[in-house]
Amino acid sequence: MLESSRVGFIFSVILLLALSIPCSCSRLKSVARTKSAVFLSPKIVLEPGSVSNKLYYGIDFPRGHIALKDFIAEVVDEAGNPIPLYETYLHHWVVERYYGSKHNDSDFILVANSGLCQTDVLRQYYGLGSETRRTATHVPDPFGIEVGNAAEIPSGYEEKWLLNVHAIDTRGAEDTLGCTECRCDLYNVTKDESGQPLKPDYIGGLSCCYDETRCRVREGFQGANRTLYLSYTVTWVDWSDFIVPVKIYILDVTDTWKALNDSNVKSTEHQCKIEYDVKESCTPTGTSNSTCIDSQRTSLSLPSGGYMVYGVAHQHTGGIGSTLYRKDGRVLCSSLPIYGTGNEAGNEAGYIVGMSTCYPHPGSVKIIGGETLILESNYNSTRTHTGVMGLFYILVADQVPPL
Ligand SMILES: *[C@@H]1O[C@H](CO)[C@@H](O)[C@H](O)[C@H]1NC(C)=O
Ligand SMILES: *[C@@H]1O[C@H](CO)[C@@H](O)[C@H](O)[C@H]1NC(C)=O
Ligand SMILES: *[C@@H]1O[C@H](CO)[C@@H](O)[C@H](O)[C@H]1NC(C)=O
Ligand SMILES: *[C@@H]1O[C@H](CO)[C@@H](O)[C@H](O)[C@H]1NC(C)=O
Ligand SMILES: *[C@@H]1O[C@H](CO)[C@@H](O)[C@H](O)[C@H]1NC(C)=O
Ligand SMILES: *[C@@H]1O[C@H](CO)[C@@H](O)[C@H](O)[C@H]1NC(C)=O
Asked: Where in the sequence is the signal peptide annotated (predicted)?
């Protein structure tokens, strides 16, 4: 009895497959096996106040011609326990793709995303910060980020991946927010990582919390050194013609690019500054409608058009949302921060623990090459914030599959 029902089950599976093969591609596609693997970064050793901002070349990553479908991450200790942001603030992590020479470790070619910033700035495939645990990053079917295509890899090279993790140990910090905002006075830093003196008006940001710097800790605070890792889970499928590739663009609200309205003059170069400061500013108090919002805007355009498949903003503490819209005001995607309300990892009170995302119905949001897009990033300016960011990460497909 048992045997015959099992045979019956196997038979019906074969029948289902047989029926699906000749009929439609979407049926076949759903049979494509999704694979997933969990990896650990190299060790990150931290003590109270310390900063680790290192580059890890040649990290573990799936091999072969594949379509990346998802990349999720979190900071864990040696036992695999999640570490909350108020102990180790995950300022950011980024994952970049490159071709490394098979014979010479120092010879490599960065394989950048599709733009838009200047060379070597924000050219990652993936990257988030404190919002990592609760931000959706999956690429919907039938789309995927194509990597590992042997036909594109120069001979003598192999595709590799680079991870940068910027973590700040804020245990015992005298001013936790100040440490996470990299305020130069708290780090006692007056020169940048390369030894250049900082400009007097530079009061906080990445130039003050580089690798091995130290943020001020309360007098007498004791905390053990600890070894942490970025645990990352990659999900992918083997490449097939049924997958529609997407391009990755990262837009930065600090980009000073200008489209010049003259066919004889080229547009200016992109110049992304990555970070900016929010000054304390409120409309006069006393009025019934006083607001404290810092709103930054920039106009940009994509070199080629396509369909938006996914969108998400990146902001720091104080962020109240970011929107990408068309010149006529129609919204392409609005991404809002989720602030934690508790104590546990993934819900730390006062921290941005997630960003809302956009997954437009495939084909519904078309961006035309050269079309003016406006990126707006809003922060609460009740108080000053240093080194904040206003990025927008979008995935764009050249085409959408026929419905
Ligand atoms: C390795 O590559 C680097 C960077 O391209 C180059 O400067 C160096 O000369 C190369 N070393 C050898 C042994 O070829
Ligand atoms: C800050 O840096 C200066 C010079 O680099 C040094 O003399 C001073 O002791 C430092 N202060 C603290 C609190 O570390
Ligand atoms: C932590 O590690 C540093 C070196 O990275 C060492 O100087 C220090 O003594 C250690 N502290 C403790 C409490 O083990
Ligand atoms: C660009 O110039 C053309 C003709 O000179 C004009 O019609 C158009 O409005 C201008 N566009 C912008 C954005 O200034
Ligand atoms: C307050 O300001 C906002 C935006 O500036 C405006 O939309 C709103 O109508 C104002 N409310 C009042 C009560 O004035
Ligand atoms: C800005 O922050 C202040 C202080 O935390 C808060 O009272 C206010 O509601 C916030 N405003 C917005 C627009 O989020």
From this structure: 1-25
In tens, the pLDDT along 356-388 reads: 999 999 999 999 998 999 999 999 999 999 999
Asked if residue 25 is part of any domain, the answer here is no
- Reported confidence tier of residue 22, pLDDT bands at 50, 70, 90: very low
Question: Residue written as tokens 């519904």?
Answer: 364
Q: What is the pTM of this model?
A: 0.86
Give the count of domains, the chain. 1
Domain carrying residue 248: 33-397
Spatial CB neighbours of 95, under 8 Å, sequence gap ≥ 6: 59, 71, 124, 125, 126, 127, 161, 162, 163, 232
- CA neighbor of 52 nearest in space, from 199, 232, 230: 230
Which residues form the pocket of ligand 1, taking CB atoms under 6 Å from any ligand atom?
Answer: 104, 106-107
What pLDDT shows up at residue 20?
A: 40
12 domain residue, yes or no: no
Phi-psi region for residue 162, left (φ > 0), alpha (ψ -120 to 50) or beta? beta
Identify the three-state secondary structure at position 164. Answer: strand
Q: Does pLDDT of 322 surpass 80? A: yes
What gap in Å lies between CA 283 and CA 322, rounded to an integer? 21
Q: CA end-to-end span of the chain, whole Å?
A: 44
Q: Is residue 157 part of a domain?
A: yes
Q: Which residue's CA is the closest to the ligand 3 atom numbered 1?
A: 225
From the list 293, 315, 296, 304, the residue with the least C-alpha distance to 371 is 304
Q: Which of 287, 289, 291, 381 to mutate to test the pocket of ligand 5 (most atoms within 8 A of CB)?
A: 289
Closest listed residue to residue 274, CA positions, set 249, 252, 257? 252
Q: Classify strands 143-147 and 244-252 as parallel, antiparallel or unpaired.
A: parallel
Q: Is residue 139 part of a domain?
A: yes
Cα(287) to centroid(ligand 5), Å? 11
Which residues are CB-contacts of 191 (< 8 A; sequence separation ≥ 6)? Answer: 197, 198
* Atom number, ligand 6, closest to the C-alpha of residue 381: 1
Which pLDDT does position 119 carry in this prediction? Answer: 85
Contact 326, 371 (CB under 8 A): yes
Closest CA to 228 of 352, 74, 119: 74
Q: Of 184, 179, 164, 183, nearest to 87 (Cα)?
A: 179
Rounded to whole angstroms, the Cα distance separating 184 from 182 reads: 6
List beta partners, residue 68. 145, 236
State the distance from the centre of ligand 2 to the C-alpha of 90, rounded, in angstroms: 26
Instruction: Give distance in angstroms: CA of 216 to centre of ligand 2.
Output: 11
